[in-house]
Design brief:
heterodimer; A: alpha+beta; four-stranded antiparallel beta sheet; two-stranded antiparallel sheet; 7 strands; elongated; B: alpha+beta; 3 strands
Chain lengths: 140, 65
C-alpha cells in the first residue's frame, strides 16, 4: 500500500446516474422538472449550498423511488449534478436510500468505477463488506 | 500485484487505497478515479510511497589501499 485517499463524490454523468437507479430498482425520469417533497421549507435545516428556498421542488430531472412518497430532484450546477430531496421521515426516502441518499451515491460510484476501470483494461472484482461494497481493481 | 481498492460505504463515503506500488506512481495510477468521482478531501502517504522504484543499491568496497 502506498497511499490512502478519501473522495467526496460529485455526480457528473447522467447516464451513470440512470444506471445506478436501475441497479437499485429506482425510476430515473429524464426531463421531469419538479420533484415531490413536503412543499414548504420549515427552516429547521440549512439549505444545500448555492440554493435558495425558491429553488426547492424544481429540478432538471427526477428520480422516483418505489414505495416512497417523495422524489429526488436532480439539478445541474456547473459541470456536475446536485441531488435535492426532503429527508422528512414520512416521505420515505431515507428509509429506502439511507442517510444522505448514501445507497444511491454508492451505486453511482460502483457503476462509474467499474465501467471506466474495465475500459482501461483492468480487472474489477466486487465484494460486499460489513459497511458497504469493496472494488478490487487489478492492473496487469 | 498492483491493485487499487475502492471502499464505498452504505452512506456514500469513498476511500481509495493503492497497493503494490512503489514510489509516486500510485498517485498517478489512482488519479483517473479521483477525476472520475469527485474531490479528494484527504490523503495519507504510507511508507511504500517513499520507496524508490529502483531499489538496487550498489556498494563499492575498497579492495586495496
Amino acid at each position: 500500500m502506498s497511499h490512502v485517499s478519501k473522495i467526496e463524490l460529485e455526480i457528473k454523468d447522467l447516464g451513470t446516474l440512470a444506471a445506478a437507479c436501475k441497479r437499485l430498482g429506482l425510476e430515473f425520469r429524464r426531463g421531469q422538472n419538479h420533484y415531490k417533497w413536503f412543499g414548504s421549507f420549515m427552516g429547521d435545516h440549512p439549505l444545500p449550498e448555492g440554493f435558495t428556498q425558491a429553488d426547492l421542488g424544481k429540478c432538471d430531472h427526477a428520480i422516483h423511488v418505489p414505495g416512497a412518497e417523495y422524489e429526488i430532484g436532480v439539478v445541474k450546477k456547473g459541470h456536475s449534478y446536485v441531488l435535492l430531496w426532503d429527508f422528512w421521515r414520512s416521505g420515505g426516502l431515507e428509509e429506502k436510500l439511507g442517510k444522505n441518499a448514501g445507497l444511491l451515491k454508492q451505486a453511482y460510484t460502483l457503476e462509474k468505477t467499474k465501467v471506466e476501470a474495465r475500459r482501461k483494461g483492468y480487472t474489477v472484482i466486487e465484494k460486499k463488506t460489513d459497511s458497504g461494497v469493496r472494488l478490487h481493481i487489478r492492473m496487469h | 500485484m498492483k491493485e487499487i481498492i475502492v471502499d464505498i460505504s452504505g452512506d456514500g463515503e469513498i476511500k481509495i487505497e493503492t497497493r503494490g506500488f512503489k514510489g509516486k506512481s500510485c498517485i498517478a495510477e489512482a488519479q483517473f478515479l479521483k477525476d472520475l468521482l469527485g474531490k479528494e478531501t484527504s490523503q495519507s502517504l504510507t511508507p511504500a510511497y517513499y520507496e524508490d522504484q529502483k531499489t538496487a543499491v550498489k556498494k563499492h568496497l575498497p579492495l586495496c589501499g
